[in-house]
User: Which sequence fits this backbone?
């Protein structure tokens, strides 16, 4: 790759970073508004000819409500609302649907733009006409997890029994419960079998749950930068976040919805999170030891850019995320364990779902060895799998940033799954 | 199609399962899928080549052969292929043993170090040979082990490995006479006794 291409690629990624709430600067870089207008993306290092890609344009979040969801804990959540978005057209045979599962702080808005908003969906680089999840070919669905705070039922939703928000009376939810809610949505959309389920980080956990529990309903899965179970280190970071929230005097045992919110604790939790999403190298490249003028707050802050970055992101997170959801969702991630009571390989026995497993070299929050454990289970169970460890210095954030490499892998993988499915269907007819 | 790919494709049964260890960009597996309808699986260490394999519609694992095949149970594949990769692994003996365990049959292809050009170069120049078939200087070669056809025959005899097929290549053609002198490359189809 020429130096100029390298530079362009880096520049594109910096802009992506800015778009993804991870800007060093306090003003956000607004992406150019593209509606059904094809734009040429920079040539990828993995593909000589980059296809023309575009935006899905203006999109709207939709809501699906159903009566009861029996949870793993034995409790029943009722009623349940699922916020979701769809992109592209469902085929007449209803065989081109792909479910995208979002990560911890994500939402149903994965692609395109909401009316009068500047920011594209969280995986807009991957979903759209000509993109990895090509909306000209596939019908893409993304829904907000239950327990979340972006339209699906969660601790901030009104408790019909109490006439006020659930708070911590909201039942504990698991990754399996999130997936079962997605199954209800997929049923509602009249889709018997998904072409693929894909997602990174916590989204990848849901993907694995789909493969284990609903393999008969999914042709292929794409777990990215994820794990079959959290390590003690991952649990530890989540526990720091939870303790920061619960130590905030405004938390009030989770009953704060009519009062001042536990913003200090939630911001602190997010600051810790952001450290774990980056790598030593990406932090050094992004911030160095640079100091922002007029930024130092108090005697002990030197005004390093990395400090302002963490403060900025912590404060911004507070405006868009609910502290109780933080507690519920991190708990669900920590309790998730597909290696117990039976090994993952046993759960995958006789599974015909095809796997594309992706990890990133500098990701120390979800290290590649965890993806290799998933691969090993596939090998033991003789499940068809492709595994790639993408070279990246971006740490865990890489799954949102290494677009060229991810797109190449996913585009070709889906093309094969699609053609195999079509061949099989033709054989059956 | 190269002569080596053609020969391997002739040996492989239709509709069988093939694990290619060190599959590179997946050229051989693509041939086997197309010609013999095999269920193909590759393992490759080079990330750039993983992208090539995926573009060819192949299933491939990004990883190191020396890390082992321990997850695969015995006789998981009809064929395990080590084509131009055995001489590049750190522990060829271990890898071959594992290949023979997880595969019913193993196909091994390697450059013949006893080809007359390499012999003469060592004899007369006193330097590590650089030939069209082994085009690397000693400090940049990916080949960690240098073996000849005779070496491999000895190895199979000592290990009680049954040689079922052999092919010796000189350029794109096959040679039968004095292969250890004339053949640049050799391909063996072997199995457990």
Assistant:
């Amino acid at each position: 790759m020429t130096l100029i291409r390298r530079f362009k690629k880096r520049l594109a990624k910096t802009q992506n970073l800015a778009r993804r709430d991870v800007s060093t600067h306090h003003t956000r870089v607004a992406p150019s508004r593209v509606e059904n207008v094809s734009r040429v993306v920079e040539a990828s290092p993995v593909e000589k000819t980059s296809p023309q890609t575009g935006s899905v344009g203006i999109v709207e979040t939709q809501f699906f409500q159903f009566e009861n969801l029996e949870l793993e804990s034995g409790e029943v959540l009722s009623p349940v609302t699922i916020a979701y978005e769809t992109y592209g057209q469902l085929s007449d045979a209803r065989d081109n649907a792909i479910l995208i599962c979002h990560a911890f702080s994500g939402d149903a808005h994965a692609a395109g733009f909401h009316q009068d908003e500047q920011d594209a969906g969280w995986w807009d680089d991957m979903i759209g006409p000509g993109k990895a999840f090509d909306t000209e070919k596939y019908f893409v669905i993304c829904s907000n997890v239950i327990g979340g705070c972006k339209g699906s039922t969660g601790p901030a939703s009104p408790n019909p029994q109490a006439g006020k928000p659930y708070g911590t009376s909201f039942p504990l939810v698991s990754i399996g419960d999130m997936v079962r809610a997605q199954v209800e949505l997929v049923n509602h959309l009249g889709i018997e079998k998904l072409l693929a389920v894909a997602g990174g980080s916590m989204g990848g956990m849901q993907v694995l749950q789909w493969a284990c529990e609903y393999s008969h309903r999914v042709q292929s899965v794409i777990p990215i930068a994820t794990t079959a179970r959290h390590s003690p280190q991952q649990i530890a970071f989540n526990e720091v976040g939870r303790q920061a929230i619960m130590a905030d005097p405004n938390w009030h045992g989770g009953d704060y919805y009519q009062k001042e919110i536990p913003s200090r604790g939630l911001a602190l939790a997010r600051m810790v999170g952001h450290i774990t999403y980056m790598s030593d190298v990406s932090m050094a490249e992004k911030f160095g030891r640079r100091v922002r003028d007029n930024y130092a707050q108090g005697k002990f802050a030197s005004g390093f850019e990395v400090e302002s970055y963490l403060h900025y992101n912590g404060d911004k997170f507070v405006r868009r995320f609910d502290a109780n959801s933080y507690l519920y969702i991190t708990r669900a991630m920590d309790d998730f364990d597909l290696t117990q009571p039976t090994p993952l390989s046993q759960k995958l026995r006789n599974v015909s779902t095809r796997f594309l497993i992706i990890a990133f070299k500098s990701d120390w929050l979800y290290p590649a060895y965890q993806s290799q454990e998933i691969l090993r289970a596939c090998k033991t169970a003789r499940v068809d799998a492709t595994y790639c460890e993408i070279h990246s210095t971006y740490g865990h954030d890489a799954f949102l940033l290494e677009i060229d490499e991810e797109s190449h892998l996913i585009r070709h993988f889906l093309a094969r799954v699609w053609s195999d499915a079509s061949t099989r269907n033709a054989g059956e007819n | 199609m190269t002569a080596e790919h053609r020969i391997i494709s002739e040996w492989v049964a239709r509709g069988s399962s093939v694990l290619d260890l060190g599959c590179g960009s997946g050229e051989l597996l693509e041939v086997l899928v197309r010609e013999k309808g095999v269920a193909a699986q590759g393992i490759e260490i080079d990330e750039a080549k993983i992208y090539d394999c995926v573009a060819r519609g192949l299933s491939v694992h990004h990883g190191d052969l020396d890390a082992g095949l321990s997850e695969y149970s015995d006789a998981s594949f009809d064929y395990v292929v080590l084509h131009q990769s055995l001489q590049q692994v750190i522990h060829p003996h271990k890898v071959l043993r594992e290949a023979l365990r997880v595969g019913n049959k193993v196909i091994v292809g390697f450059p013949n170090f006893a080809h007359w050009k390499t012999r003469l170069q060592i004899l007369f120049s006193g330097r590590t040979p650089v030939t069209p078939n082994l085009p690397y200087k000693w400090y940049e070669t990916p080949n960690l082990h240098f073996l000849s056809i005779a070496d491999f025959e000895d190895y199979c005899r000592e290990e009680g490995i049954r040689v079922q097929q052999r092919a010796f290549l000189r350029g794109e053609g096959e040679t039968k006479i004095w292969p250890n002198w004339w053949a640049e490359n050799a391909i063996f189809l072997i199995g457990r006794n």
Q: What stands out?
A: The interface with chain A takes residues 41, 47-48, 50-51, 53-55, 57-63, 71-73, 76 of chain B (CB under 8 Å). The longest strand of chain B covers residues 161-170. The mean pLDDT of chain B is 95.
